[in-house]
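S., here's the first fold you wanted:
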Amino acid sequence: MSFEDFAIAPAPGHWPVPPQDDAPVSKDRIWVDGCFDFSHHGHAGAMLQARRLGDELYVGIHSDEAILENKGPTVMTLNERVSAVEACRWSTASVPHAPYVTSLPWISHYGCYYVVHGDDITSDSNGEDCYRFVKAAGRFLVVKRTPGISTTDLVGRMLLCTRGHFIHSLAQALAGQEGHGTEEERKTLGAEMKQRIADYASDETGKRPGADVWIWSLPGTAKSDPTTDDPGRFDKLVAGDSPRPGQRVVYVDGGFDLFSSGHIEFLKKVVDAEEAVARAQGWYETTAASKRRDQTGSDYSPVYVIAGVHDDEVINRCKGVNYPIMNIFERGLCVLQCRYIQAVVFSAPFTPCIAYLRQLPHGAPQGVYHGPTSFMGLTYDPYRGAKELGIYREIGAHEFADVNAETIVQRILKSRAQYEERQRVKGVKGAGEEAVRKREEMERAAALEKKEREREAGRGAQN
């Protein structure tokens, strides 16, 4: 019997996560719930707005079975979706197996008074409002839905192989110099994008500055040269927290497309690795912690993680088809909301050369981490600079190592009939057999091109 069968209230000892006894209800403890399929920035935006309405945020996550019954198949498993929610810096606690129709006994058990949801309508399999009970009780609050992004939108991009979401230059888009519409409309959109970046850079309260945000640039055509030794230029987008005394600064980079449990687990492992280093050096000893509190007023993590996010064209040049499925703005927001990140560099180079690493806003990092992803048959080593500096580190295989943009797309293609029905129900035109066949042909062509690059790289190594 599933937790959803106990939508009225599970018996003590049978709640999916602690506490097992009812918690005191507080108007400062907020509840949100949903599918959270793909951890896109729309989900994060809802959690940020909800978190700002209180001091704690509990996030209910529906089961795969409940979503299938009421909406259609999920792309990500429950464990993968829980991983994404728990990584959001504004989430206090996650509650898996939350009822699809929000239940007053459930939210009260976890001490939440108000339920927050976007200004769109969510219905169950009978067409009834999922929030009808909390609305009737006067315990429902509405926040604005994040425009231009949803799981349905992303599935559509995959099935239709569109590239209209690509951003050529984020700097120009933010300045209103790139995009559709009139000059005034572009400038308005650019200002809204800047504000959203600043919002997502807030700390765990959602109300104070948190992450430091920069954008990197390189003049002329040098940016497309992966072997350049030019340090480039860093421009600050958002002033956040700088490294605190004793913190080790480390650097990671990537596309972070369809930001998922694979990326999240990698970032968590980076933090775990650095915490192990700190533990060996006495960071967690009582006297060391007391000294930090005396000097700064609070204790803090031993690691400061900077994440570099690559441009759309850089990723598409490597992966082809219509990757990335999310553009750099969308991917950057996903990274920014992650609790394991303290700073983000938009438009970071694919090859972080020595000059670039030394020019990073907070100085040369003490570690550069890379995950289990292959280099896709490159004829050069993108991390040569970090290796020469002796700061290159690798994170090995982990539970979600195989979860990435390509595997997520393959899940969609494998069950395309079900997802097209889900799109149809949501009012989105189905991809059709021809469009799906085109996607599959492009994926095969990209795979063949990757193998050819690997063969070329092998021949180069032999020579």
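And the second, which I think is the more interesting of the pair:
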Amino acid sequence: MAPSPKPVFVLVPGASHSPAHYAYLQHLLLSAGYGVLSALLPTVGTSANVTVEDDTEYIRSRMLLPVLDLENHDVIMISHSYSGMPASAAARGLGKTDRAAEGKTTSVLGQIFIASILARGGDGKDVVATFGGQLPPHIQADEIANLVKCDDPKPPLFHDVSPALADAAVMSCVSQCLTSFKSPCPAATWDAEAFKGRCAYIRTLDDQAVPYEVQNMMIQGTGQEWITRDIETGHSAQLAAPEKLSSIVIELAEHFVAL
């Protein structure tokens, strides 16, 4: 297949989320002429001992490489919340200079993180240990069932979403296995040479799940230069302000394509 002049967005859902939570955002990106691929992560909807590394491998082998190598399209990767960890790790060796050195013509042109967890990883620590040893207050750990649960997702995740849509979004959430939070974080690529100037972070200013101050602390803690954009929503910008979010995402994609 001949390469498209526009990249494909590979959109990786957050914890306990499915592609349905991003459906309208995907529709807007498709309507703007971009391809989109999203999928349910292996750690979602199971109590088995599935790890963040399993998510990483799935994103790489079933989402990124098929678009790059089978369909011959460039990729812009979008991650949200939890998925910032496995998604960034999955892009290792897939940056533009990495792929060019291998004689490949397609690559991951950029990474867009939406209120994402930024764990450097690669040190054997899990995400809970990396961020102080405690899960966020809205998340409960069921050690026996090996699940992370949120008794009332609406306040932390959907407080600024219209009531009917928020209720439907809550119904669409599926518990995620606890081992995804208690397995070692794989090494991120936002500090890799191939992604210098190719990583952007969209901060959600009214976020009750990953507060704006925490987002800034994570960004600063990376020691990297980031492209940052702000959106005046809670944690689920894709539901609260999808048109605004899509315009930011497209603007960033155009920037990465032009580099």
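Why I say that: The radius of gyration is 17 Å. The first strand starts at residue 8 and ends at 12.

Talk tomorrow,
H.
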